[in-house]
Amino acid sequence: MAGARIDALSGDDPVTLGPYRLLGRLASGGMGRIYLARAGGRGLVAVKTLLAEGRVSDTDRRRFAREVAVAQRVDSAFTARVRDADPDAERPWMAIDYIAAPPLSELVRSCGVLPASAVRWIAAGTAQALVTLHGVGIVHRDVKPQNVLLPLDGPRVIDFGISHASDLTLTGLTLGTIAFTSPEQARGEESTAASDVYSLGATLFLLATGRAPYGSDGDTLRLLARVQRGELDLTGLPKELVATIRPCLAAQPRHRPTPAELLARFREQQAGLPTTTSGTRWLPPRWTALIDAYADQGLEWAGDRAPGPSHAPTVTQRTRVAPKPPPTLIYSPQRQARADRDRTRREMAALAQLAERQRAEREQAEREEADRVARVRAEQEERDRAEAARQAERERQEAARREAARQEAARREAARVEAERVARVRAAQERADRERAEQERAARQRAEQERAARQRADRDRAERAARARTTSPTPGPPGPGPRPARTGSSSGASALGWLLALVAVAGLLTWQPWEKTGGSGGSTSGSSASGSVTSGSGLDTHTDDSTGADTDSGSGATDSDTSGSDTGPDTDDTVTDDPTPTPTPTPTPTPTPTMDATDRAFAVVHAGDCLDVYNDGHDNMSASSPIRVNCGASNAYMHVNRVSTLTGASGSCDTGAGFTWWSRSGDDGITRTLCLDRVYKAGQCFPAKVNGETNADLTVVWKCNASKVPKAGQSILRITGFYRAPKKGQNWTCPAGPGERFWYWQVNQGRSIICASAA
To answer: Taking the complete model, does pTM exceed 0.90, yes or no?
Structure first.
């Protein structure tokens, strides 16, 4: 019957290892051998030991000890358990459970390929074993058909001791191993769990097609080069297995699935079907027949029947004609073993040389690539520095232009203010000159009136004296007797009248009622109403002077009446000779205009300031007056690039996306214009029309979580980034995730770009 091939022990094989009696040789490699052994009633075990001539080297012993330690960490039904080990023995050994099942390599070679359902079943069982190994931190590093045994209850992964051999290099690879090695392992790079997944994919490809996933011409070095470059040949892979096997063979480790994902995919595909772990449901009859033969053979050996060629003929033994016995040679097995070891060493040396040459070429290529990248980076940095210098120069020139414009505007504003001040001073001087001339004219009029009053008083006194002399009695002869009483009485009355007249004139000159009356209508200039001609006040006293003249005339008439004289005609003549001049109205001073709080808020804004204001979406500013904030603050929405007080200055402000202007006609008669541009920061939102032709007013700021928009058809967008505009002809796009939609605008006269996505 078919079964495992076992060779008889030769002269250089031990009879026992530890407590185990060796029954035969199961396998032999360049570094060790595996024996079938039995230990009393404990059943069959596979004992692995190092193959060495003479004393075992310390390096090999340490490697074997690491292999034992790693194997003892795994206790799973999907792997072979370690029963016992002694890495410190003269010939180190390790005993593991003997699994009476054929490897996948022999099943494919003897029984052909598998259907897709059976491949998925084996993939699930092997993935479960890798999940167990990776769960305890073990990377197998040598998953291949020879290391996966297949009993009917599911695959078993064996020989994972090399997983932690840190000194393993390409020298450990053989022709049978290279075809199932990941590209990174073939290049001598670090192996990871993803490397085991790649090897699993190559093993599954063999089960489905009967060959490795590479073209093969028997040349080991060429095959190694194909594996390193990932040059796959997937011809013949059934399309129903592409979704399972092709992702495992991805060139980049990060693109391969994990064993847990493979296991979950298998379980998902088998949902609704009867659940069973037996291979009789999945495997074809030829496969199950060979598996049963291995199982029966294992039961026979476990029943204490010694294995031998007569009891366990292999497929090769049953189908080939027995050759003629070779001539008896002395120690021929030992020489053959030495030849095998020499051939293995030569192959390993050749592979080591190839690996070293490839490593040197790779290092040289890496150095050249690093030099090229460094050179390109240096050139790019130089270009960036030059561009930054040019940009800084442009910004400096723009700042100088703005500063010159600001200084010119300030100079013009200062000139205008100075002109207005000079005009006001000139107007005030002219008013003062007019007031001074008016005061001088009024003083002359008062002096003339006083002189006229004195002349009238002198004439009155002269007339009264003349009348008094005319009415005096003619002197008679002297004689005794009293004087007539009438004469004495008239003389006393005349003297009293003169005295009263003088007192009245003196009182009028002292009192000056025309000055006091004129003071009540005083000047709006705010000067004192003292009435003094030399005080320099701008009082209008024409009407008061006329009144004062009438008072003087009235006083004189009263005095004349008191004296009993008839002076009516003389008074009329006096008034006619000295008519009162027509008064000239005092001009009203022009009031000085004043600024309110809004005017003052506009007046303190300068170019370069930032404001907490923005377009509210309804063509209005969000505040009635400018609110200055720090340009780095989160509420700095607008930047002032120019300030002007010229009429029509809004026409000189920059236009385009994100530019606007704000004017204020102040109560002081000055129109102030602020030229503004939007300050863009990531996270800010604004409304925009994105269906059809995309457009937006970028001076509008809107709440990101608002439930309404200013106009129909608009959506709320959020600024995701603010970038320098790429060079002309340079391909550039806004950073975005897969499938994410975005919009962008050129701003700052095309010098910058903002990117936005739906809020």
So the answer is: no
How many CB atoms within 10 Å of residue 112? 11
Running DSSP on this structure, what letter comes out for residue 231?
A: -
Task: For residues 746 and 724, give the distance between their C-alpha atoms in angstroms, rounded to a whole number.
Answer: 10
Strand 685-688 versus strand 743-747 pairing type: unpaired
Identify whether the C-beta of residue 98 lies closer than 8 Å to the C-beta of residue 36. Answer: yes
Burial class (CB in 10 A: 0-12, 13-18, 19+), 256: buried
Strand pairing class (685-688; 16-17)? unpaired
Residue 183's H or E segment, with its range, is: helix 183-186
Residue 464 burial (CB count, 10 A): 20
> Alpha-carbon distance 654 to 749, whole Å?
9
Phi, psi of 752 (to 5 degrees): -135, 170
CB 81 within 8 A of CB 73: no
Assign residue 658 a region (left: φ > 0; alpha: ψ between -120 and 50; beta: otherwise): left
The model's pLDDT over 253-312, given as tens digits with 9 standing for 90+, comes to 999 999 999 888 888 877 666 556 677 888 999 999 999 999 888 888 877 555 554 344
Rounded CA separation 606/640 (Å):
7
Query: In sequence order, what E strands does 43-86 have?
Result: 44-50, 82-86
Evaluate whether 354 touches 170 at the Cβ level (below 8 Å).
yes
For 519, counting Cβ atoms within 10 Å of its Cβ (0-12 exposed, 13-18 middle, 19+ buried), the class is: middle
One-letter-per-residue 3-state SS of 490-548: HHHHHHHHHHHHHHHHHHHHHHCHHHHHHHCCCCCCCCCCCCCHHHCCCCCCHHHHHHH
Give the whole-angstrom CA distance, residue 31 versus residue 51: 5
**pLDDT tens-digit profile of 641-668?**
999 988 887 888 998 899 999 999 888 8
E-assigned strand segments in 638-714: 638-644, 659-665, 671-678, 685-688
> Beta strand pairing status for 638-644 and 610-611?
antiparallel
- CA gap 123, 200 in Å, rounded: 8
Angle separating helix axes 332-471 and 220-229, nearest 10 degrees = 20
- Does residue 195 contact residue 203 with C-beta atoms inside 8 Å? no
Query: Closest Cα to residue 84, out of 32, 19, 136, 13?
Result: 19
CB atoms within 10 A of CB 570: 16
